[in-house]
Q: What sequence folds into this?
């Protein structure tokens, strides 16, 4: 169902932060976070793949944790701090994972890439993947139908220590 | 999705006061939102329980732990008390879903997730679980993923959870609250076999909310194994899974637990089979006997006959791994 489609029912107020910007919105209860981002906020970097939580193309960061936006009701995000693919770069400086994806040519069609990158940012925050094998397992929620997995894993493997170094430099949380 | 109204109560009392057969509680939403998109479930009211503060993991007076219903699957698997003292549970949780889904899905919701039977999801076909009395196309249709134990003429669906298989083995207790008050349900009694009412997955009343899950004092901290067999290496439901826990002393089994996933409408356990292991040395022959006993009465369908020998071998392997011990087999969790 489209977030903008006219429906009977009550819209609810929603306040959240998206990519550092505070927003005040009205949403219908059945609007998913994915539809809100793409159709009301024009943040179309986040992709709709399966729309059933099976492919990971819609992965965004909610309060620092990776989640499937397609299975998240927007109305339940009141007070949340959301980061999408549009919020990762700092001005013209790409996020280390974005740079690594380019270096390793970690895509073919690119449709799954925003979800892959947001998922890998979440993986780095979790701090649980220390081996290539663990990265593979912990990226299993993101499908790539072009099959660019080997380059995706290589990109994530290269970026993890860079993100750790950056976090240490800034005194931020472990990454 | 069919439109619905949304409510966010501030207390458990208020939440259960709002609940009835036309409403659903929502926490992580990972299964419910999907079912609503497919029109399999069409609640008139969603009751958002994420503001109820059921988020903690705390020690109980008898040395166990009480896990709030809203603790996410990821938080639970990575909580130090679970990693150290209930590693069977951590291993089972991490075998399920994807990291994104584990960040969203709640402890209480994991118990309430619905079967992944194709026909249950396909509103163009009959299904006794979705529409009581309409029939079961799975029994004579495509049934590779379906039950081999405890099924009925009305339903051959399986329960999809990994976490619940470990919780069955650990003998967790489910704390619930409804308008009539609170009660505690032993895990073995929580989920139902389908019988002639497959629309009911468990014994909760419409107004009852899971508030917490209680684990008894730690056991099987070294000798445990959650073994999951699936069609791909990650992010797939179990064809067969086994939760095994042993307590060993001087090479003799002092206590044993054995539960199966992917084979029935609920985690499959038989304490009588577990008792046959006690007082014995852990040998392949003993484990084979136990596997045969637990699978006694299996009734495979046209496409899932492979599950019987698969489960048999998985049980022997899980018990053998458990006997070896986590340190010896190099487990990380």
A:
């Amino acid at each position: 169902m489209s977030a903008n489609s006219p429906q009977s029912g009550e819209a609810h107020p929603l306040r959240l932060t998206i990519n550092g910007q505070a927003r005040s919105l009205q949403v219908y209860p059945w609007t998913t976070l994915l539809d809100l981002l793409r159709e009301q906020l024009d943040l179309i970097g986040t992709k709709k793949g399966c729309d059933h939580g099976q492919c990971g193309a819609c992965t965004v960061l909610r309060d620092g944790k990776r989640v499937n936006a397609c299975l998240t009701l927007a109305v339940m995000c009141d007070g949340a701090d959301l980061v999408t693919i549009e919020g990762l770069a700092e001005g013209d400086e790409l996020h280390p994972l974005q740079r690594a994806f380019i270096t390793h040519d970690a895509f073919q069609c690119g449709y799954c890439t925003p979800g892959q990158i947001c998922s890998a940012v979440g993986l780095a925050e979790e701090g649980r993947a220390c081996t290539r094998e663990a990265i593979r397992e912990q990226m299993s929620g993101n499908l790539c139908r072009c099959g660019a997995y080997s380059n995706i894993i290589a990109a994530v493997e290269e970026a993890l220590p860079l993100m750790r170094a950056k976090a240490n430099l800034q005194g931020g949380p472990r990454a | 999705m069919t439109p619905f109204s949304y409510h966010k109560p501030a207390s458990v009392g208020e939440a259960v006061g709002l609940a009835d057969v036309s409403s659903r509680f929502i926490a992580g939403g990972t299964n419910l939102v999907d079912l609503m998109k497919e029109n399999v479930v069409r609640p008139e009211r969603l009751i958002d329980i994420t503001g109820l503060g059921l988020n903690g993991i705390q020690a109980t007076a008898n040395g166990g732990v009480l896990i709030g219903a809203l603790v996410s699957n990821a938080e639970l698997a990575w909580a130090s008390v679970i990693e150290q003292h209930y590693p069977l549970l951590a291993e089972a949780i991490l075998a399920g879903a994807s990291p994104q889904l584990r960040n969203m899905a709640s402890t209480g919701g994991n118990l309430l997730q619905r079967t992944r039977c194709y026909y249950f999801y396909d509103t163009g076909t009959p299904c006794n679980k979705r529409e009581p009395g309409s029939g079961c196309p799975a029994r004579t249709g495509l049934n590779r993923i379906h039950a081999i134990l405890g099924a009925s003429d009305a339903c051959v669906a399986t329960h999809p959870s990994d976490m619940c298989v470990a919780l069955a083995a650990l003998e967790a207790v489910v704390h619930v609250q409804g308008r009539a008050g609170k009660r505690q349900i032993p895990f073995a009694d929580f989920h139902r076999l389908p019988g002639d009412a497959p629309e009911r997955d468990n014994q909760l009343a419409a107004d009852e909310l899971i508030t917490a899950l209680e684990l008894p004092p730690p056991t099987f901290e070294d000798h445990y194994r959650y073994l999951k067999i699936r069609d791909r290496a990650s992010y797939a439901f179990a064809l067969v899974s086994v939760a095994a826990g042993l307590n060993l002393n001087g090479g003799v089994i002092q206590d044993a637990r054995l539960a199966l996933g992917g084979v029935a409408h609920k985690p499959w356990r038989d304490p009588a089979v577990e008792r046959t292991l006690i007082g014995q040395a852990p040998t392949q022959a003993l484990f084979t006997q136990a596997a045969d006993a637990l699978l006694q009465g299996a009734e495979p369908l046209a496409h899932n006959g492979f599950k019987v020998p698969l489960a048999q071998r998985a049980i022997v392997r899980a018990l053998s791994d458990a006997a070896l011990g986590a340190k010896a087999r190099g487990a990380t969790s």
